[in-house]
Amino acid sequence: MSSMKHTITCSPDYSLLTVNIPAGNTVKVEASAMAAMDTNIKMKTRMKGGLGRLLTRESLFINEFTAEGGDGDIMIAPGSPGDLKHISLDGNVVYLQNSGYVASGLDVTLETKWQGMMKGFFSGESLFLIKCSGKGDLWFNSYGGIIEIDVKGEYIVDTGYIVAFEETLDYNVQSVGGLKSLFFSGEGLVCRFSGSGKLWIQTRNVMAFANWTFPYRPVKKSN
């Protein structure tokens, strides 16, 4: 299956995705991500994601945009400032962080995947991942730039920097240097990946940025 024509501009800071949808074809897009589109593109809203996305306060809805009577362009803007990545699925499976999904072809199946209490809760990240399978285009985003890594053997990534990874990789959550390091070093929990496959990480960590801005927050002075 050939990929839809698309361009990614303003990368890696404030990436904007433009997809040329062939006549009669459909693109699935995360709710609220459509920025602009041609007038011959029609939208339909469907409920996706189930309980997992509800619990993580992510949108339960995926909008479907279909080009009618000719090709049409749609501009898609993710919610967070950062990069966009395109891959083509061909029967393989990719897992995304819960907020990483942006858009996909109609034949890409999206499912909420339970990480398990140990992996999800203790990593400090979402208990749920998005399982992407099937065939066709898949676009996902990050906070910051995206770096693609070919893992062969083992590789360690801080949990706050993981964007996506292939199903061929297994992972376990652990502390990077014991309990003392966990509480006093500023380093948190990491994922130790093993196997062979692709891994995508982001160049910034949302929680690290929140901690950096904390001293500058407005504080109400007492009288």
Compile the SSE list and pairings.
Elements: E1 6-9, E2 16-21, E3 26-30, E4 34-37, E5 41-47, H1 50-55, E6 61-67, E7 72-76, E8 84-90, E9 94-97, E10 101-105, E11 108-114, H2 117-123, E12 128-141, E13 146-158, E14 162-166, E15 169-175, H3 178-184, E16 189-202, H4 206-213
Antiparallel strand pairs: 1-2, 2-7, 3-6, 3-10, 4-7, 5-6, 8-12, 9-12, 9-14, 10-12, 11-12, 13-16, 14-16, 15-16
Polypeptide structure, described:
The chain is built from four helices and 16 strands. It has 223 residues and is mainly beta. Strands 3, 5, 6, 8, 9, 10, 11, 12, 13, 14, 15 and 16 form a twelve-stranded antiparallel β-sheet that branches.
**Number of distinct helices:** 4
Number of strands: 16
Q: Provide mean pLDDT, rounded.
A: 83
Enter the CATH topology name. Double-stranded beta-helix
Put the structure in a nutshell:
The relative contact order is 0.17.
List keywords for this structure.
mainly beta; Double-stranded beta-helix; 223 residues; 12-stranded antiparallel β-sheet; 4-stranded antiparallel β-sheet
